[in-house]
Structure to design on (289 residues):
């Protein structure tokens, strides 16, 4: 018998909690399942990936992998589906603050056939760098509603500049399956930096991981994590150790997929630099409001 649990949960389940003092992380709340829907039927999910919400001025953007939005391989730009499927309709789930410290998931649908396709952005240097990141402006999440959306960059503590070296620990956050419910919290997979972080892989804004992942993680955020006193880098390049830190986080990139080569001995996950997001959103002023 195969058991497929519903990931995510509800308060008040009727039995004592094992971790009653734990808190749901803002990273989990700002990360979402991204479903690619059938052109003919909202109830048919063709495939899925992961994304997260990012605040840019008064606008809210969904950040995900470019191939989740286009259905095209970032390196060749060819369709990834052997049937030629290119997604045009999507469904995702922003977390909204319904009352202080209480959250719920809303449902948003986006249809490129009826909405402006120019509402999504890619790296302005995509042709040279092949950056597999896309930003979708979610116009329905503007105004008062948009201010209640949980966005990854709402928390400055997510962006500490932690000292990093090859072999250091990181986390990949995403949805390996679309069987989710309740607050629809993602799965956190543990990995390590597999390439020298100072040296971009293949002269692209990209680094490699040693981790166990699956296709549904595409578009998910990747964090460097340090447990205990954390060595951080100040603006002047000096090192400061946060002695009172329990866990220090640093957002470093967007998970894009796995590279396969005989020399790798299998598939190696790859991640595009998170610092490309502000560059991509620099073109946001050209989008329709």
């Amino acid at each position: 018998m195969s058991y497929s649990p519903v990931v995510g949960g509800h308060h008040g389940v009727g039995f004592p909690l094992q971790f009653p003092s734990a808190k749901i992380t803002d990273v989990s709340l700002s990360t979402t399942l991204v479903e690619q829907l059938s052109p003919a039927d909202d109830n048919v999910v063709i495939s899925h990936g992961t994304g997260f919400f990012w605040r840019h001025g008064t606008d809210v953007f969904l950040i995900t992998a470019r191939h989740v939005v286009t259905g095209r391989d970032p390196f060749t730009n060819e369709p990834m589906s052997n049937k030629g499927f290119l997604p045009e309709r999507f469904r995702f789930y922003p977390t909204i603050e319904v009352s202080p410290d209480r959250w719920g998931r809303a449902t948003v649908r986006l249809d490129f056939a009826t909405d402006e396709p120019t509402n999504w952005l890619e790296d302005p240097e995509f042709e040279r760098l092949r950056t597999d990141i896309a930003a979708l402006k979610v116009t329905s999440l503007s105004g008062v509603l948009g201010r209640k959306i949980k966005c990854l960059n709402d928390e400055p503590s997510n962006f500490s500049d932690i000292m990093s070296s090859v072999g250091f620990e990181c986390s990949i956050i995403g949805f390996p399956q679309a069987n989710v419910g309740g607050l629809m919290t993602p799965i956190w997979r543990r990995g390590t930096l597999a390439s020298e972080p100072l040296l971009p892989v293949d002269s692209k804004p990209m680094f490699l991981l040693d981790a166990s992942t699956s296709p549904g993680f595409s578009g998910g955020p990747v964090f460097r994590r340090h447990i205990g006193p954390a060595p951080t880098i100040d603006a002047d390049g000096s090192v400061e150790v946060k002695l009172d830190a329990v866990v220090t986080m640093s957002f470093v990139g967007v998970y894009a997929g796995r590279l396969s080569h005989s020399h790798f001995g299998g598939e190696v996950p790859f991640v595009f630099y998170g610092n490309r997001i502000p560059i991509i959103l620099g073109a946001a002023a050209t989008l329709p409001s």
About this structure: The mean pLDDT is 87. The CA atoms of residues 86 and 125 lie 22 Å apart. The longest helix spans residues 276-281. The helical segments are 26-30, 66-70, 126-129, 143-147, 276-281.
